[in-house]
Structure formats: C-alpha cells, structure tokens
Design goal:
The protein is mainly α and 387 residues long. It is 47% helix and 0% strand. The protein has helices at 3-11, 36-42, 52-60, 75-82, 85-96, 108-114, 123-129, 133-142, 157-163, 169-179, 193-200, 203-212, 227-233, 238-247, 263-269, 273-282, 297-303, 307-314, 317-320, 333-339, 345-349, 357-360, 370-376. Helix 13 (227-233) packs parallel to helix 15 (263-269), helix 15 runs antiparallel to helix 16 (273-282) and helix 15 packs parallel to helix 17. It is elongated.
Amino acid sequence: MDPVLFKAAEAGNIGPFENYQTCSLNQLLTPDENTILHVYLKNQSSEPESTDFVDKFLERCPPLLFQANKRGETPLHLEARYGHSNVVKVLIDRAKALPADPESGVTKAKMMLRMTNGERDTALHEAARNSRSHVVEILTKEDPEFSYPANVHGETPLYIAVSSLGQEREKVIDEILTNCISVDYGGPNGRTALHAASEVGDHETARKLLEKEKKLTKTTDENGWSPLHYAAYYLWSTRMVEVLLECDASAAYIAETEKKRTALHIAAIRGLADVMKEIVSRCPACCELVDNRGWNALHYAVASKDRKVFEECLRIPELARLQTEKDDKGNTPFHLIAALSLNWGSFLFNDSCGYSKWQTYGLNKRKLSINDIYLGEFAEIEVINPL
C-alpha cells in the first residue's frame, strides 16, 4: 500500500482513492495484509461519528467485507473488539444485502458473524473479551441459533465473559444467556463458565447459569475439580458455596481424579471453617469420604496448621466423629498433630473430656502411638499440597 494511500486510509480521507480502480481496492495491502478498511478502523480510538468511509468502500468493493488480514481478522473482528456498534451495524447490513450461499443457504451476514481468526475467535469472542455489551447484543440477536464454539484456547464467548472483569461484564453475560438459543458453556482444560463464576466468586452469575443448565454442578475439569472445588478454594464468600449446594448437594461427593479430594477436603486445607460448616450442613454424609491416602476432612483441618479451624471442626458433630478414624497408615488426625510438631499439646494431653489422646487412639501401622511420634519426631507424614 502506497504511503499516501495508507495515510489517507488512517485519516478516513476518501479523496485519494476516487480515481483508483474499484476492482483493485482489495489488493491494497500492508505487510500484515491489512486492507484499507483495516487501516481505517484500527486508527479510530473512539466510535466514528460517520460511517461514510466504510459505506463508500464497501459499496465500491464488497469483498473488503470478508477479507481478513494475516491474523485472520475481518473488519467485524476489529469493530467487535473496539465496540464501535454503529460500524458493526453497517457491516451486518452490507452483508445482509448480498445473496445467501447457494449450497448451505446460510446468509452472508451469518457467514461473516461465524468467521474465525487465527485463534478461532469469532467477533462475539472479541466483543465478550473486551466487554462490549452493545456489540454483543447486536451479534447474538443477529444469529441466536448459532452455538459459538471454543477457540484454540478452549474458550467460548460465555466463558470469556464470565472470566472477565470488564465494566459491562454482567450485561454481556445476560445478553448471551438471553439471546442465544443454544449456549456453549465450555472453557479451557475442561472447565465451564460455572467454574469461572466460582473462581471469581460471582454467585449471581452462577445462579443464572444453573437456571439454564443444572448439570454444570457435576461437570469437572481435567483434574476432576467441580465448580464446588473452585468455590472452596477461591473463596470470596460462602454465598457461592450455598448457591451450588442449593442446586445440587450431591456435588459435595465429587472427588478429584488423582488425589481424590472433595471440596470439603479443599476447604479444610485452606482453613475455611465456614465453608466446611456449609458443606456439612447440606451434605453430612460427605464427611465419610477420604482421599487416596485415607485422609478425612479432619486430617486436612490439622494439615492447615490453623488451631482455630481445628477447634471449629470439633464443634461440628459430623466432623468431630472423625477423630478416631485412621488413614491408610493407621494415623488418626491426632497422630498428624504430633507428626507436624504443632504446639497443640492441650489436644494431646489435657483433653477436656478427661482422657489422653495418645492413650485413646492407640498405634498406627508402624506400631507408633501419638506420644511416640510427638516425642520421637517421626516425620513420616507428608502433607498434601492444596494445589
């Protein structure tokens, strides 16, 4: 592209192109294969007051509407990213004026809306990522039946919207959920939009998602983590945990793939007593579940090294009953207190119930009592990393 023409395109100056051959306009390219329209649109820091430049060039050279640069970006991709809704409408109207594909019957407008760039992002991906709610509304209403698939990173537009922190985030989410007939909830590594909502602590969005698709509570990522696992780990408030369990309390039984930890285990190692109370109150039987080493939730409460959390757990009857339960090596939670050399001597030797823990819970499989471990410093118990 000649430098004079490049500058004219940046400025939206039509004059230098007046005498240029119409059939060759789409051959004017930058090294990145940006067309006249790409150059003009990239240079608009705010929404253009007039769409004359775009209108006139599309009238003279309709192929510019679908022409992509080296990154696979069409003019619609750019305008969805920048949020220029008036230009988005012009692009769609121009596409609507073209005949539909004779084989598929799909209109040119829908073909344009479904085009993907080099990372398989559609214009809706771009609009969602940049919190362009007005553009999201236009795009979803134009093609409501299309289920926008994931890009190369595994992100769907809805997942991107829920994960974002943009100012118009809530409206973007609502537009997608309201206007799209068939919504894809998927995200990277097996996650879903509900995982994303749990991670950022957005219980209101979580409720909206579950009203549309209740089974999301049971969908796990590639590590076997459910949205409840995420809520227990990335805690913002117990409200997220409440919303998930209100919808499906059985989610508390889901254990991760490798280490077999439930959300209760995760809450315990994170020292989140309130979350543990909420989970146990709604699904008391989940206390019986142990991980791949036979550790129960009380073992994990000890591993958090937070004495107050452990004390809170002992006030919950279902968790207090786990005091005598042994893991695969025969260690009770009190063996673990001794192994970690925690300064919790009152729990081991001056119990309020009037008996000594090291005498009550006997020996593990190495024939060691709690006292043996406490005094002998047998560091045989490895604490599982919460990650």
